[in-house]
Amino acid sequence: MALLLGVAGLVPMIAGTAGAVTYTFLNLPVVAGKLISYQLVYSNSLLSFMGAIHWGLAMTNYSRLKGNADHSTLQYIASVVPCVISSVALTLHPFYSLITVMSGFVGVFLFDIYADKKGMVPEWYMRLRTLLTLLVILLLGITFILCSLPPYDEEYHRRRLLALKRSSEMKSNEALPQQK
């Protein structure tokens, strides 16, 4: 069930990346802007949720290892940091917000690896977390790259192709032997 819900949670991320595609290749800035904004808000909420998992585990003093030390203070701290990162990211320009939230997901993932080694998360958790985190970072990364490119402009590309054609014609004319 966790896998099904986790994959379903990727739908808004996919929609945001689709928005970046419409911006870059179809030049539909209004549609793209809404989808990308939705992806940013959703990814920040998702990042906060990832922290909340550790809050819940700390509240129950969860440990899969017998005789494991109490890590609840560390988990409480780790549970709040993603929310703070998300709050800051939402105040930034979308370009910087994407970088910030991707960094947040990487940071939480690194803590999850540590938590897994210390037995602070269920045994199955990292298999699910690794898949979902990689997909989230991939989708956010694609959005970031596509939004960094200029939008597709058909008229610009038509002029550019015409200029290249003229340039190649001039070069081929220069290669012809001169008649005396």
Task: From the structure above, extract its key features.
0% strand; 180 residues; mainly alpha
SSE blueprint and pairings:
Blueprint: H1 2-8, H2 11-26, H3 29-59, H4 72-89, H5 94-117, H6 125-148, H7 154-175
Helix pairs in contact: 2-3, 2-6, 3-4, 3-5, 4-5, 5-6
Quick take:
This protein has 180 residues and is an all-alpha fold.
Q: What fraction, in percent, of the residue positions are helical?
A: over 70%
Number of strands: 0
Tell me the Rg in angstroms.
Answer: 24 Å
- Residue stretches low in confidence (pLDDT < 50, at least 5 long) are none
Strand residue content:
under 5%
Overview of this structure, please?
This protein is mainly alpha-helical. The chain is 79% helix and 0% strand. It has seven helices and no strands. The longest helix is centred in the N-terminal third of the chain and has 31 residues, at 29-59.
